[in-house]
Design brief:
- The chain has 745 residues and is α/β, with parallel strands linked by helices.
- 59% of the residues lie in helices and 10% in strands.
- The protein is built from 27 helices and twelve strands.
- The strands form two sheets. An eight-stranded mixed sheet has the order 5-12-11-6-10-7-9-8, with helices on both faces.
- Helix 2 crosses helix 27 and helix 10 crosses helix 15.
- The longest helix is centred in the middle third of the chain and has 89 residues.
- The relative contact order is 0.09.
Length: 745
């Protein structure tokens, strides 16, 4: 179990590995066919390429300026904004049919020899082919069928020819913008080198001329339209200005805004003063109430009011009183109260207090008067503000109408100015032709053709034909299901390979060299291969040796007779052998051993018309006995399936060590199948590189269906050199490759 699992793993790994040598062997096996096909295709391609008309290419460079230098700004009229959309549009114009049509008509390309190739003149005896017309022939019998079409074609022939010419022209034209620039390459291909360069330049010139003409036409249209619009705008502007002036005169409005701005400023001024007066009134109201509560004549209490106490005059008088009291104190201390100086200072202090009180009372009365004045001022300003607001409301209603009329005038004036500016610019540039493009590089007449590229085409032809031939070789190899190698026997047939028989070269004198090769060349590789097969047969049946062995194949011509003879030769060296020719449809043993075809044989022995000694002969060169076919019976299958034949084979197996039966192919007839009950084993012969795996599997399947035992497969006609070279098989294990079994061994 472990060994079988290891074998399965090894087989899976071997299948997953790609053997590159197999690809190389396929190429080597078909190398002459691949090279021959590639050379033939390359030669044909070379002949064709040298007969192709050479094509020349002329290229000019055109600069498309997206932002032009104008005398005055007129971008709106021309629509030049420098965007990528503009450049892409110009590229499409260069490739347009209208531009191509203008070039064709301008340069009369319809009559150019490059587009009017002469007709091929056929010999006199073949001219009827050119003159023959299916349409004319049918129209003779059905004139109404082509009448309308004929009239139509006559009218539109010139247009059709021109349209076809445009199509051909555009196919040869190439417009290639250069990235990140405003340059464009204009290329034209033609069989005439001068025409190719001329058309490359003509496209650029015609594009520039067409652009100038379009601008001029656009300018004329714009000027005409602007002139009409300008007249209407002038009339509407004059009417709007007249209505505005009438309204001003009617409402006696002065200024731009009708006095509303002055009223607004007046309201702002009165409002500001009113706010200040109200604030001042509130400030004085508190002082006024305090003065009224204290009394306007009580100077001692009034001086307690902070605003009065902080008054500058009050402070000055207080300082005077303080100075007098200080001097009075000094005089009193020095002179006494009754001293004259003391009296004088006392009188001075009384006057100082009197002045202070008067000033305090005066300030209090001033505050009262200022409060009363502020109250009147607030009333006056409030009245003035109300009057100004009433006036402003009246002015606002007038301003709305005034603004409406002024806006109408401004709108019409702006529109009139815009039209006038555009009209002036368009008129000024009407006669100024400025092109938006110019040719920077003129196309020169090409010297070398651009196509066909002979070297490249020949190289591509050789490469393509070579790859195609290689692909066909691999396809043929994939479709080839014939058995070629021992590996194919093991994998495709899943059978044991007893041995291989190498291919022997035949000549006129010896058409079948394999018949007597074992006897003539006992030490050859072919003989060693037969000994290998003999050893395989013996070793595969050590416990129960095969006595009766049948040799068969799928179809005739696969070498079962030569295998039977070779096996008889090799087995005769280790025991007694009887070779029976049981192919009663196409017997060949007597031919191989050069025996008489009229000799008594198997059919006579089974029919019991002759004795065994009369039918079996000894082949002295091979030291084995031979039982030929004998007289060909009308019903070979019935004879082989008879009880007499079975008894005969059983009796012969008791006399000989090995009985080898050469039977008919199992795919052609059923003769080999009826032997299954009486033979011990089948040797199945497969012809290398001829027998398909399908046929071989079907043949062996039929044998097994009748319970036949297949001892193994013999691979015949193996071309050893080619197999080793192209398929990687190493047959050194099947026959001598080293000279070990030579004549001297």
């Amino acid at each position: 179990m472990e060994a079988s699992s290891k074998d399965q793993i090894t087989l899976v790994n071997s299948e997953e590995i790609i053997d590159l040598r197999q690809f190389w062997r396929v190429l080597m096996s078909q190398k002459w066919g691949i090279l021959g096909f590639s050379v033939i295709v390359t030669l044909l391609t070379t002949l064709i390429v040298f007969n192709i008309t050479p094509i020349f290419k002329g290229t000019s460079t055109l600069l498309i300026e997206s932002q032009q230098t104008h005398v005055v700004s007129i971008q709106e009229v021309y629509g030049l904004d420098g965007s990528s959309e503009y450049l892409l549009t110009q590229f499409e114009i260069l490739k347009s049919r209208s531009l191509a049509k203008k070039v064709i008509l301008k340069y009369q390309l319809l009559n150019h020899p490059a587009y009017n190739l002469p007709e091929i003149e056929l010999p006199e005896k073949f001219k009827f082919i050119q003159e023959f017309s299916i349409k004319e022939t049918v129209s003779e019998y059905f004139p109404s069928l082509f009448s309308t079409q004929t009239e139509k074609s006559k009218k539109e022939t010139d247009d059709i020819i021109l349209e076809n010419m445009i199509d051909s022209f555009l196919e040869n034209l190439t417009v290639s913008p250069i990235k990140k620039t405003q340059l464009v390459k204009i290329s034209f291909e033609s069989s005439d080198p001068k025409l190719s360069s001329a058309m490359a330049n003509a496209i650029g010139d015609t594009y520039i001329e067409d652009n100038l003409a379009a601008k001029l036409e656009l300018t004329v249209k714009a000027t005409t339209w602007l002139n009409k619009q300008l007249k209407g705008q002038r009339v509407e502007l004059t009417s709007a200005e007249h209505r505005l002036q009438q309204y001003r005169e009617k409402e006696k409005i002065i200024g731009i805004d009708g006095g509303l701005g002055m009223a607004e400023r007046e309201i702002e001024l009165v409002s500001s003063k009113l706010v200040d007066s109200r604030r001042e009134r509130l400030e004085l109201l508190s002082l006024y109430n305090q003065i009224q509560e204290i009394g306007s004549t009580n100077a001692n209490r009034l001086q307690l009011i902070p605003s009065i106490l902080g008054h500058a005059l009050v402070q000055n008088l207080k300082e005077v009183v303080a100075g007098v009291e200080l001097r009075r104190s000094e005089v009193s201390n020095r002179y006494g109260r009754k001293h004259p100086k003391m009296k004088a200072i006392s009188s001075e202090l009384s006057r100082a207090y009197s002045n202070l009180n008067k000033q305090i009372i005066s300030i209090a009365r001033g505050i009262e008067n200022k409060y009363k004045i502020s109250v009147e001022t607030v009333k006056s300003l409030e009245g003035s503000l109300d009057e100004t607001r009433d006036d402003m409301q009246q002015l606002s209603s007038k301003e709305f109408k005034l603004n409406e009329l002024q806006q109408d005038v401004d709108t019409k004036r702006a529109l009139f100015d815009q039209f006038y500016t555009r009209f002036s610019e368009t008129s000024a540039t009407g006669d100024l032709k400025t092109a938006n493009a110019r040719i920077t590089d003129l196309a020169a007449t090409p010297i070398e053709p651009i196509k066909p590229n002979i070297k490249l085409l020949v190289a591509l032809a050789f490469f393509a034909s070579f790859m195609f031939a290689v692909m066909v070789a691999f396809i043929l190899r994939a479709l080839d299901n014939t058995i070629k190698t021992s590996f194919d026997v093991e994998t495709k047939l899943n059978e044991v390979l007893l041995g291989i028989l190498p291919l022997l070269e035949s000549d006129r004198r010896n058409q079948n060299p394999s018949y007597n090769h074992f006897h003539d060349h006992p030490h050859s590789t072919y003989s060693e291969s037969l000994r290998t097969i003999r050893t395989g047969v013996i070793l595969s049946s050590l416990d129960n040796p095969y006595k009766v062995i049948s040799v068969t194949s799928s179809v005739p011509g696969e070498g079962k007779t030569s295998t039977s003879l070779g096996l008889a030769f090799s087995l005769a060296q280790v025991g007694t052998v009887l070779l029976i020719d049981a192919d009663m449809r196409r017997p060949s043993i007597h031919k191989a051993l050069e025996l008489s075809p009229r000799r008594n044989g198997l059919s006579n022995l089974v029919a019991q018309t002759h004795e065994m000694e009369e039918c079996i002969s000894t082949y002295d060169e091979g030291d084995f006995d031979v039982l030929t076919c004998g007289i060909l019976p009308p019903n070979p299958s019935e004879l082989l399936s008879s009880k007499r034949f079975a008894d005969l084979i059983h009796g012969l197996s008791l006399i000989y060590d090995k009985v080898i039966i050469d039977t008919a192919p199992c795919q052609a007839v059923s003769d080999a199948l009826v032997l299954a009950p009486i033979v011990d084993a089948y040797l199945y012969v497969v012809k290398a590189d001829s027998t398909t795996s399908h046929h071989a599997r079907n043949g062996m399947k039929r044998i097994r269906q009748v319970n036949g035992n297949i001892a193994g497969v013999v691979l015949n006609h193996v071309d050893v050199k080619n197999v080793e070279k192209y398929y990687g098989e190493d047959y050194s294990g099947y026959y001598d490759n080293y000279g070990y079994t030579g004549a001297n061994s």
